[in-house]
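The data are quoted verbatim for completeness:
=====
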Amino acid sequence: MIKVRMKKSKNKVVLQASGHAMQAPKGQDIVCAAFSILWQHTLYNCNDAEERQDGQVDRITIPLRTENNLALCRAFHRSVEVLAGQYPDNLEFDYEQE
């Protein structure tokens, strides 16, 4: 299962992800592919986003200094919620706002 955590504070969003969807064999897993695209799209299009990998956990820190970053974080949130709703056995999403 992919476990995703999104923590939003006043000045930044921290995204954290780990695991594999296990919906199909590696390379054929549509849940993993969909999530990977959402993750990469958010990372590559947010200004000054920082990615860090700690073993099995990937983390992105996104400063909320621009409307672009805020809009992309909102889109990520909505899209991952929908994906988790469609595939609850393969993706778990936790959102926290400070």
About this structure: The chain has two helices and five strands. The beta strands are 2-8, 12-18, 50-54, 57-63, 91-97. The mean pLDDT is 95.
